[in-house]
Amino acid sequence: MTITVPRIQARVTELLAEYGIPSAAIGVLHGGEVTELAVGVKNVETREPVTTDTVYQCGSMTKTWTALAFLQLVDEGKVDLDEPVRAHLPGFTVADPETSAEVTPRHLLNHTNGIEEAYGDPGEDDDVYERMVTNIAGAPQVFPLGHTHGYSAALGYAVLARILEVHDGKPWDDLMRERLFVPLGLTSTNTRHEEVDETRAATGHLIRSLDEGPIVTPMDHLPRAFGPGGNLTSTTREVLAMAHVLLDEGKAPNGQRILSAESIREMTRSRVPVPDPYLFGPEWALGLIVCDWHGRTGYATDGSTIGQNARLRLLPDTSTAITMLTNGGPRESFYRKVFTEILTDLGTVTIPDLPAPDPTLNLDLSRYEGVYERPGTRYEVSTEDEKLYLTLAMDPMQAEFLNKPDRVRYELLPISRTHFLMPPTDPLEDTQTVAIYDFTNGPAQYLHTNCRVNPRSE
C-alpha cells in the first residue's frame, strides 16, 4: 500500500492551521520507495513556500547520527562500549569518583550516566567538546551511575564526540561528514549552522497564543555545545537515508555499508527501561527510543530546537520509516494525528493512545509530595482535597516572553502507582505524562517527565 499524497497534504494543511505551525515536510520510506510532500511556508514574514528540499533543524535526532558514527569506532575495534571513558580520555573527571572511573560509552549512549549538565560556557570554537570535558570536573550526579534513565541534552553525546575526535584527529563536524554524510551521498545535511544554504533553510517559530499566531524565534540556532546532541540540519529525503541504514542492517540506499549488521542489532537491542514509558516508549536503546505499538516494536528519534522540530519513526517488520520536519511546535498531538493518517494509508500499526487514569487506585499521596529540581527546573508536588497537583516553576524571563505565568499548576491523574497523566491548562499544550518513583527510602526520590529526571530536593 502507498499513501494518498493529495489527501495527506490536505489534512496536514488543516492541522497546520489548527496548531499554528507554519510548515511541515514529510517523508515516507515504504516498500523500498520514498514519498515526500511539503506544506506551508519557511518564514511567516516572507511567506516563501517550503519544498521537499527545504532544510530543517533536527535537534536531538542528531544523537542517532552521532551514535552511528561512534558504533563505527566499535566496528573498527578502536573502542568497546563497556570499557571506561578514561580508556580514551585519561583525564576524564567529574565530582563523583566512582562515575569518573567507571562511566562507559554505553552509559552515555543510553542516558544512564547521571552527570549534571554543568559544563559552563565552552565557547564556539573547534575545541568546544574538549573544553566541555575539562569543564565538568566538578559536575555533580543527578543520580548514581546506572541507577535510572535521565536524558542528557548535550553533555553525554559531547563526551562521545570528544572520543571520536581523539581517535580521528579532527573536529566532530569534519569527521561526521567523512564518516556518514559523504558515504551516504548526502549534500544537504550539515552540523555547522554557517554552512547551511540560507536560501533553502526553514526559519524557526514560537507560538504564544493562537490569536497572535507563530512568530519568528529570537534564537535562530543552538550553541555549538549542543552539536553532537542537537545541531544537525537536513531534509526529509536525507533523514530517510539515515533511516535506511537502520532498517537495512547498516547499508545505505546506495548500497554502501555504513555499519555492521551486528552493530545495528546492538543499537536496537541494548536497552534500559524509561521511568515514564508513555510519552515516547518504554525503553531507551543506543541513540534510539524503543516503542511498543500494540505489541509491535518500533523505534523513534526526535528533536527540538528553539522553534523547529523533527520526528522519525521506524517499523522494522514492514521496513517502514516516516519522518516529519516542522518549523513550529512541538506538539505531540500534531505529530500523532499526522502519523496516524499516514500509517492508516499504509495499512500498518498505528500509534497507541495514552492510557486512561485509574480512579480505583488508593495512593498514599504523602509519598509523592515534595520538591524535585535541577538547575533551571523546579517541580513542586502537593496535595489538596485528596488530589495530587504539580506546580511548574518557570524561569521568569521565559515566562514573560511566552506570556505565561511563572508558576503553572496541573492536576496529576494516576495511571498506576508511579505513573500519572498531566492534563493541559493551556490550549497550546497537550496532555503530558509523569513518573514519580523510587520509594526505596520511603517517599519518592525522582520525578521523570519529557525524558528528563529530577531528584527530590525537599
Structure, described:
The protein is α+β, with helices and mostly antiparallel strands. It has twelve helices and 20 strands. It has helices at 5-19, 62-75, 97-102, 105-109, 128-135, 155-168, 172-181, 227-230, 236-247, 261-269, 332-346, 396-401; strands spanning 23-30, 33-40, 56-57, 205-207, 214-216, 233-234, 272-273, 283-284, 289-293, 296-304, 309-315, 320-326, 370-374, 377-384, 387-393, 407-414, 419-422, 432-437, 446-449, 452-455. The strands form four sheets. Strands 2-1-12-11-10-9-8-7 form an eight-stranded antiparallel β-sheet, with helices on both faces. β11 and β12 form a beta hairpin. The radius of gyration is 21 Å and the shape is globular. The relative contact order is 0.15. The mean pLDDT is 96.
Shape: globular
Mean pLDDT: 96
Describe the biggest sheet? Answer: 8 strands, antiparallel
Helix content: 25-40%
Q: Radius of gyration over alpha carbons?
A: 21 Å
N- to C-terminal distance: 55 Å
Which stretches are low in confidence, meaning pLDDT under 50 for 5 or more residues running? none
SS-derived structural category: alpha+beta
Would you count the extended β strands for me?
20
Query: In what order do the strands lie side by side in the largest sheet?
Result: 2-1-12-11-10-9-8-7
Roughly what fraction of the amino acids lie in strands?
15-25%
Number of helices: 12
